[in-house]
Amino acid sequence: MLKISNAVTLADWEIEINPIRAQGAGGQNVNKVSSAIHLRFDIRRSSLPAFYKERLLALSDQRISKDGVIVIKAQSYRTQDQNRDDALARLRDLILAAVKVDKARRPTKPSRAARQRRMDSKSHRGKTKSLRGRVL
Which end of the chain, N or C, is surrounded by fewer C-beta atoms within 10 Å? Predict the structure, then answer.
C-alpha cells in the first residue's frame, strides 16, 4: 500500500511491478540479476479521486502514455528492493506534483522611492564611467 497523503492511498493491486534486467555497461551483477524495476500504474482504473485523475491526465510528462498509464523504470540501485522503493517514491512524487496548486501571483510594481533610487544609481554609474575618459 502506497500512502500519497493523509486521505489518499493506493492499494497494491493498482500498481504493477515487474523486475527486469538493468541496462547499461555490464558486469557480473548486471548481466545475471534482474535488479531493475518496471512500474506501471493505470490512472483511469485507479482508486484515486477524480481531481487527482484529471490533473494527472492533463500533465504533459513523457512517463504518462496516451492511454493514461504511468510507466516508471528504476535502475539506479544495485538491489531490487532499493529500486522498488525508488520507483514507488517517484510515483508518489509525480502524483503530488500534479495535484499541487500554485499560489496565484498578484502583480506588483516598485514604489516611487525604489524607482528614484534606481535612477540615482544609474546616473551615479554614468558619472563614474564618464570620469574614466582621457584627461586633457
Answer: C
Structural domain containing residue 84: 2-99
* Position 90, amino acid: R
Q: How many domains does the chain have?
A: 1
CA distance 74 to 90: 9
Q: Cell for 136?
A: 586633457
Q: What is the pLDDT of residues 4-30, one digit of tens each?
A: 888 888 888 989 999 888 877 766 666
pTM summary value = 0.70
- Structural domain includes residue 59: yes
Query: How far is residue 57 from each of residues 3, 21, 34, 36, 50, measured CA to CA in Å?
Result: 20, 29, 31, 26, 11
